[in-house]
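quick one, 186 residues, struct below
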Amino acid sequence: MLNTATKLYTPHLISVLDYQKMAETDVFSHDARVELIEGEIIDMAPIGSTHVSYVNRLNRELVRAVGDSALVSVQNPVILGDLSEPEPDFALLKSKANDYEDSLPNADDIILLIEVADTSINYDKQIKSPLYARFCIPEYWLIDIQKKNLTVYQKPEQGQYTEVTTQLLPLNRSPLLLPDVKFDLA
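---
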């Protein structure tokens, strides 16, 4: 469940398959910003111009730096188990000949997930971080626009990251699984 506190209700959980069928049949409006987290459909925070700017600049840097060593997926869904289909700002994925045309990427395909947070910092820390750790995503970066820092989550064990470090931006950083690739996070 999304909340560790005792719930006073029992939600009707939606599977990834049902969620995808809902999207295909236009249950959600075309401009709806939602994602499926642990069987619950969650409204995503609106995107402001500062967030867009960070995502655009980071996209340019990531694509340039990884070249053909990984695929940079921007604000696209990944499947984590039967009940979650989050849409991180970035997913660095293992290269695949058809660029995931036949299926959405899953936990085994992910090298690194990155969230850019303006107003969603608590959600990204308290909900997404444990979700990513539970599915053994090797590394998760959380960029806090307001504090201008990067929190790096690594080494997931038993549903939580065992190594968490925070550094002020700008900085250069390499992903754990791509040590020869350096990102300039200016």
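The helical segments are 16-24, 49-66, 121-134.
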